[in-house]
Amino acid sequence: MILRGWLSRRRRRWPGGARKVQVLRRTLQLLVLALLFAIPTLSLYDNLRNQRDEVGIQSRWDTRLVHRLVADLEEPKALTQAVRGSVWTFKAGELVISDPLAVVDFVAASRVPWDRFLITALLPVLLSLLLGRVFCGWLCPADLLFELAGKARNWAGIKTDVTFSRGTKTAVLAAGVVAAVILGNQVFAEIYPPRIVGAELYLWITFGTFGAGAWFFLALIAFEIFVSRRFWCRYVCPGGALYALLGRYRLLRLEVDPVACTECRLCNVSCELGLDPMGGRFGQDCNNCGLCVRACGHDALNWRLGLPPSGGVDRLGHPESGVAAATPGEPAP
Ligand code: SF4
Ligand code: SF4
After folding, report:
1. CA nearest to 229, candidates 155, 160, 131
2. What pLDDT, in 10s, does the model give residues 174-185?
3. What sign does the dihedral 97-22-267-318 (CA atoms) show?
4. In the list 98, 247, 260, 265, which could disulfide-bond 89, CB 3.0-4.6 Å?
5. Ligand 2, closest atom to CA 290?
6. pTM value?
7. Whole-number pLDDT of residue 79
8. What's the CA gap between 312 and 253, in Å, rounded?
């Protein structure tokens, strides 16, 4: 009770406003994409350099650029091998960070309950416990591309939006775990968009080609544009489901000020995930992206540090379950 009281008094307005939050968010998303581009480029450069293939290095703009940056260094490999991996498992020097879904996939497929590999997911797990589904809204490279698809959809004026149960993604997560245990093989890696984006960039940079993942991803983008808005992240992604479960009792959460709110619904329209920020029903699916905060012209949405509302009701008196309310026309889970 004391903790809840202390935390609920800690309301925060983000210094500099909602627009700066979006600039920061976009910068982080672009940095992740740039990193996914840089990792295979550095690896390719290393290979060409090991083969003393000067012509190969000079024949590409990216390896030429790396060469310019590292050619005069005493230890070029300290730079070219500084970062490795992908969003599935990322290595920077001695630090290894894994997506919690990669760890779940590994444990299920290997049927080994404990391995040192599990420790590599500790940081993202802690961040999700504190900040909720922020990987989705702030770091996932696929999210950025899905958001662009959403903008294309708005631009084209497409209104069709087939909805499904939000609980589907939790069922996909559970089914994937069972399948991995039975098959003894990891199953999520092949269908997880952030990993697919990294793997396809690797193929393109290293071999100049794309694999099946690129077609899968393109099909998803087309489906989101023409059939169902943000289909993958709202209803299917096992990683999104895992992050949502971890962030169910997050400390950083939005709240709506019912006095300042004019019920214009601009926040609800802006929410990519189809949540109900105006009604104060963020549920476990909210990724703290802040798009609704920026859309509100009345400063009625703000972040606060705290546990879910005591008594478990939102501003409308509905139970604030872990899963957000269905938006009109969308079946509740
Ligand atoms: S739900 Fe999946 S694809 Fe969507 S942002 Fe989250 S991790 Fe990325
Ligand atoms: S409710 Fe707001 S912060 Fe949460 S996902 Fe929707 S737009 Fe983003």
Report:
1. 160
2. 999 999 999 999
3. positive
4. 98
5. 3
6. 0.88
7. 83
8. 14
